[in-house]
Inverse folding.
């Protein structure tokens, strides 16, 4: 009986591990051929015999992103578009720079969990759980601290120091995607009808039009 239970537990563990990750690649690598016009889930593979070291390389994450914008932050992605060797591997990175009190505004990644490491500065970070609880979970992070934003949940980071800050994020998808809440709601093209947003946010059309004009 004990052995049956042990085998069952082991099977359940293995199964849950399989379910918790992307499917395994079927070859050592599949460097993205971004010039191919065949549409598949991801990119088609470059001929492996033509693959070179630079296909697995991205240089430049030591450089600060330009934070001169209304929110005072910049995400420098190292996703499959920037690093073709990531194709099919289920992982990507980003550098996030913040000017003093700069904000990486509320957003979500439709395909990835994010693990953020603070390299310099002090960040307040937070995310909100799904309906109906909508619990807000937040923390102040210092250099060397690591925080996880669970897949698809709305989250943000804000520099709460008077000096520049930056963080490195790892994301569990070659193409995590970024959905910035304010941009999708107020900056869609074409616009969502003002009356829909008036009802959604229980506010006036002047306020909605003003918000739409900013995105
Ligand atoms: C990282 O990609 C982030 O936007 O937080
Ligand atoms: Mn993020």
């Amino acid at each position: 009986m004990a052995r049956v239970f042990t085998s069952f537990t082991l099977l359940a563990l293995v199964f849950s591990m399989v379910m918790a990750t992307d499917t395994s690649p079927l070859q050592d690598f599949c460097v993205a051929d971004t010039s191919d016009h065949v549409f598949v889930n991801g990119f088609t593979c470059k001929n492996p015999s033509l693959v070179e070291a630079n296909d697995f390389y991205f240089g430049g994450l030591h450089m600060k992103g330009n934070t001169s914008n209304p929110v005072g932050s910049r995400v420098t992605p190292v996703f499959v578009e920037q690093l073709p060797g990531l194709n099919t591997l289920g992982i990507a990175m980003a550098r996030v720079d913040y000017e003093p009190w700069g904000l990486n505004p509320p957003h979500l990644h439709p395909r990835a969990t994010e693990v953020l490491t603070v390299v310099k500065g002090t960040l307040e970070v937070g995310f909100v759980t799904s309906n109906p609880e909508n619990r807000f979970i937040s923390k102040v992070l210092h250099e060397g601290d690591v925080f996880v934003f669970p897949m698809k949940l709305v989250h943000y980071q804000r520099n709460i120091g008077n000096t520049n800050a930056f963080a490195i994020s790892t994301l569990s998808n070659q193409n995590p995607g970024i959905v910035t809440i304010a941009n999708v709601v107020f900056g869609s093209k074409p616009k969502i009808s003002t009356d829909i947003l008036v009802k959604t946010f229980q506010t006036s059309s002047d306020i909605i039009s003003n918000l739409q004009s900013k995105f």
